[in-house]
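Dear H.,

Thanks for agreeing to be a second pair of eyes. The structure we're designing against is below in token form, covering all 475 positions.
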């Protein structure tokens, strides 16, 4: 017997996903607790005999499995064959649905963030919204996988979401048309001469390759080496583990440690370095083959916030620990556990938490997150918006931090106070030829890189310019 282990760090905020094979024949089965199983059999029998309506055996067993897994932590779950297929589709960057990253809260489904340029984002679904009904089905009691299954469907078909939003006296009703969700993971542009910008919305199969191609174009368009680069990981919910390692490897020296995992079993312990074998795609080619050599040394700022989770936290933590980049923004989500997807023959599979991951210096970010070097709040968010931001530590039954510290990390760095809310410049008043006229802007969605309207981005650019000044003085 063999298993396909999909290592996932984050179902609710995206995740970290990789593929491996391992034998199960030599693994010893744990002894079964006979007394507890007798109780289970007794409850099963009583339901079959006395429940108000007949219940199918498979339904009872399936629900028992779901309860056993979901009671462990927010990310363990039971998956049907269709749900396993949907998981794979999501990592390939294309699937049919609404475009919402979701989590669980008090038996309801909570919106972590809408994906850029999707029906959900265009309709006005917001981070922090509680989905209380999908069509005519109340959400309370549904697993996350069941909720996802009901929201996904044939492109063009419609689904109605009933949503509870803070400060709204009545539920909001949105009727959305499902679409093919094509998530473009890497977007880029020049912020101004000599300073480039790259945004990663999610880590997918081609992310490292697309990053290398994007950096190559930025260097070509600038016609000389960049003086600084902003890597934007804000609201990036995660994705493929090898994609995260590949992105980190694009900026780190060869063989530098990116992340390691610790678990109870030998196969749950990994050390992933900036080495081709740790981020190469299945065909064995190097996705960073087109990477400009100067990219490994360009001064960098990494932007993060409370929506940066899993794979994006791996990259941010690695670049911070290796002293490769300055982190700017706000504390990250804190998703530091690893899930294995274990198939159950033709009956789907289970998603089981098997390990925690750690940054190169040994930090666990589980239920804690990464604290940036320079804390800069988002000037567009109100206090109510900040209160709605959900993090790993807010989730019921979340795993504890192995260092025994689930409280938000503290930093001795001075906090940069938010600027007044920016006023958007009307299009007709913008000068031609400025960065916002760059054709590469197409598809950026709500995270349009404009230093005039994005206070965190403007501060990141300032940090890069200060680095230039300090470097000149040192020379």
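And this is the sequence the design step returned. I haven't edited it by hand at all.
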């Amino acid at each position: 017997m063999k298993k396909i282990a999909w290592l996932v760090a984050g179902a609710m905020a995206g995740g970290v996903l990789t593929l491996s094979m391992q034998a199960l024949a030599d693994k010893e089965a744990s002894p079964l607790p006979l007394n507890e199983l007798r109780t289970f059999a007794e409850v099963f029998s009583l339901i079959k005999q006395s429940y108000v309506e007949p219940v199918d055996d498979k339904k009872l067993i399936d629900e028992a499995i779901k309860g056993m897994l979901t009671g462990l932590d927010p990310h363990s779950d039971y998956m049907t064959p269709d749900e396993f297929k949907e998981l794979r589709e999501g990592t390939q960057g294309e699937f049919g649905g609404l475009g919402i990253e979701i989590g669980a809260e008090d038996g309801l489904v909570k919106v972590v963030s809408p994906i850029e340029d999707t029906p959900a984002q265009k309709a006005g679904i917001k981070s922090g919204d509680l989905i209380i009904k999908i069509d005519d089905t109340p959400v309370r009691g549904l697993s996350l996988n069941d909720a996802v299954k009901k929201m996904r469907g044939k492109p063009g078909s419609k689904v109605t979401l009933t949503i509870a939003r803070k400060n709204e006296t009545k539920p909001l009703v949105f009727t959305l048309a499902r679409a093919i969700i094509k998530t473009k993971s890497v977007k880029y542009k020049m912020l101004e001469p000599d300073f480039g910008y790259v945004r990663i919305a999610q880590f997918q199969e081609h992310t490292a390759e697309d990053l290398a191609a994007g950096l190559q174009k930025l260097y070509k368009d600038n016609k000389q080496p960049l003086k600084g680069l902003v890597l934007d990981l804000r609201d990036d919910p995660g994705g493929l583990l090898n994609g995260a390692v590949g992105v980190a490897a694009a900026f780190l020296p060869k063989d530098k440690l990116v992340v390691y995992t610790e678990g109870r079993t030998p196969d749950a312990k990994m050390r992933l370095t900036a080495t081709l074998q740790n981020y190469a795609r299945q065909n064995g080619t190097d996705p960073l083959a087109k990477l400009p050599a100067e990219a490994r040394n360009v001064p960098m700022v990494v932007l993060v916030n409370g929506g940066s989770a899993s794979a994006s936290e791996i990259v941010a933590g690695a670049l911070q620990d290796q002293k490769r980049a300055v982190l700017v923004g706000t504390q990250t989500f804190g998703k530091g556990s690893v899930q294995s997807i274990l198939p159950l023959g033709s009956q789907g599979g289970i998603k089981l938490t098997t390990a925690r991951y750690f940054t190169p210096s040994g930090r666990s970010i589980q239920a804690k997150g990464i604290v940036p070097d320079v804390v800069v709040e988002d000037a567009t968010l109100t206090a109510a918006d900040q209160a709605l931001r959900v993090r790993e530590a807010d989730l019921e039954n979340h795993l504890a931090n192995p260092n025994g510290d689930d409280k938000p990390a503290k930093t001795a760095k001075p906090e940069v106070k938010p600027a007044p809310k920016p006023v958007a410049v009307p299009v007709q008043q913008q000068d031609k030829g400025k960065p916002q006229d760059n054709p590469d802007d197409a598809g950026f969605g709500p995270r349009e890189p404009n230093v005039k309207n994005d206070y965190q981005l403007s501060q990141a650019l300032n940090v890069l310019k200060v680095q230039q000044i300090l470097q000149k003085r040192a020379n």
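Two observations from my side: The CA atoms of residues 301 and 463 lie 7 Å apart. The chain has two domains: 95-182, 186-337+356-474.

Warmly,
E.
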